[in-house]
Design goal:
32% helix, 22 strands, globular, 475 residues, 4-stranded antiparallel sheet, 22% strand, Glutaredoxin, single chain, alpha+beta
Length: 475
């Protein structure tokens, strides 16, 4: 029997498997596709996902293959400069194709001992008090203590669980693909500049060697969006929107996406969980989808590992839904808003002009960017200091940086008093005694995902709080 079976080998499933393996959990990743996808629908990592990579010592391999950019326009394409003084040591977006992200995460998952099996389609799911039985299309049955569905918007796990995913169907559709263009760059730039005055769902980004990532509004909504558009359909829409097809030819891949917005009612059904697009479906505006899934996995991984190890306190697994469901609800709302702001309808354009005025205020611009990049997320840990429930940025310590101390996925007590102790929890919580000029409180207790769970200097208060997230003391 496996400890955990993860269904889906996209970024969400790979991050989750890596988190579980940090704690010695026996993990199997299943994916119905025989080979990794060649498509790179997502094109970058936002600040919080960059921080996730830094917290686990993975960031350098990503920086080597991506491009750091700090430009505005991430909220509905509103042209405003990247805000200054964001609450992060990583104030940029990392432009990196999803295909590369998945390759790097696969390498990491394999390095730490994850078993990945491709060409394995899940067609059945049943659970009892001891575990979950997963049935594959070839008739094989597998057992695990827990299962996590990270298998995308059309999640088989979600459907087999019977979890409702209410919301709205697609009202508009967009074509996306990578192809070669023969038009001169000067003409392409001139046409794009003119068309994007009204059509914000249009663009062509050079990828090198004459290949471009092209996006254009579709004529309508296809009955079956799983069927890729043809090159002729793509060229027809380019001519309709831009007046030219730019000499498009030799497509690498073509796809379509809509603006359907749906969310699973429950992220947990007993021993089975949902994460990433299996739990929430929304338009890609703002580039939040891949990042939201990575952050789901980062929240769930250490909690599931605690349950496998036997020290998870009561309610820890339920806190996954309690914390992540509201975050996705907020993302769904802001993507709905962005789609409206990108409409060519007069009313929507009037609202867009008004918001364009508002983002000239630095506080408004910062608020929207913090929302898109997920660094404003605060879990509800009750009343107290406003930093409770928020993630701690990567502080500079006298010896190295904070995130360098979190590579093992354990809790961390950053103690400036030198008087505190985590005796009884030392197998789950690291104790770092060090004065930090950037920290204006005596001590902070961080969960393995970097969120602040306690602030103070009283040992008795600390001892009363540790069991909330780290279970009973040992010894």
């Amino acid at each position: 029997m496996y400890d955990v079976i993860v269904v889906g080998s996209g970024p969400t499933g790979l991050i989750l498997s890596g988190e579980l393996r940090l704690h010695g959990v026996h993990v199997l990743v299943l994916d119905k596709e025989a080979e990794p996808t060649r498509q790179s629908r997502a094109q970058g990592l936002h600040v919080r996902s960059i921080e996730v990579m830094a917290q686990r010592g993975l960031l350098e391999r990503f920086l080597g293959l991506g491009q750091q950019i700090a430009v505005g326009g991430f909220f509905a394409g509103l042209a405003k400069a990247w805000p200054e003084r964001l609450d992060t040591a990583h104030s940029y977006v990392l432009a990196i194709p999803q295909q590369v992200t998945e390759r790097l995460l696969t390498e990491h998952a394999t390095e730490v001992g994850t078993e990945i099996r491709r060409g394995c389609e899940v067609v059945g799911l049943s659970q009892d008090e001891d575990g979950v039985t997963v049935e594959l299309a070839d008739g094989e049955e597998l057992r695990a203590r827990y299962v996590v569905g990270c298998d995308g918007g059309r999640s088989a796990v979600r459907k087999l669980l019977g979890v409702a995913c209410p919301g709205e169907p697609s009202r508009v559709e967009t074509l996306l693909g990578e192809m070669e263009l023969t038009v001169a760059q000067e003409e392409l730039t001139a046409v794009m500049t003119e068309v994007r005055k009204t059509q914000l769902r249009f663009g062509a980004m050079p990828l090198g060697d004459g290949v471009f990532r092209v996006i254009v509004p579709a004529e309508g909504v296809a009955e079956d969006r799983s069927t890729a558009p043809t090159l002729d359909e793509f060229k027809e829409q380019l001519r309709a929107i831009a007046g030219t097809d730019f000499g498009a030819h030799s497509p690498r891949w073509l796809s379509r996406f809509g603006d359907a917005t749906r969310q699973a009612e429950r992220y947990r059904v007993d021993r089975v969980f949902l994460a990433g697009d299996a739990a929430h479906i929304h338009p890609p505006t703002g580039g939040q989808g891949l990042n939201l899934g990575i952050q789901d996995a980062f929240n769930l991984g250490w909690k599931l590992a605690a349950a496998v190890a036997g020290w998870a306190p009561e309610g820890l697994l339920d806190s996954y839904h309690a914390e992540r469901h509201p975050v996705a609800t907020d993302v769904l709302d802001n993507t709905r808003a962005q789609i409206q702001l990108m409409s060519t309808e007069p009313g929507a354009q009037a609202v867009r002009r008004l918001l364009a005025e508002l983002v000239e205020f630095d506080d408004v611009n910062r608020y929207l960017i913090e929302k898109i990049t997920a660094i404003s997320v605060r879990y509800d840990f009750g009343e107290g200091d406003e930093r409770l429930g928020r993630r701690m940025r990567d502080l500079e310590l006298k010896q190295g940086r904070l995130y360098e101390r979190m590579h093992e996925g354990r809790g961390l007590l950053l103690d400036q008093t030198g008087r505190l102790s985590v005796e009884g929890w030392a197998d789950r919580v690291d104790h770092v005694v060090e004065v930090c000029e950037e920290l204006d409180v005596p001590a902070v207790l961080l969960r393995p995902d970097g969120h602040v769970s306690w602030i103070g200097e009283d040992q008795r208060e600390l001892l009363a709080h540790l069991p909330t997230w780290f279970g009973a003391a040992t010894g």
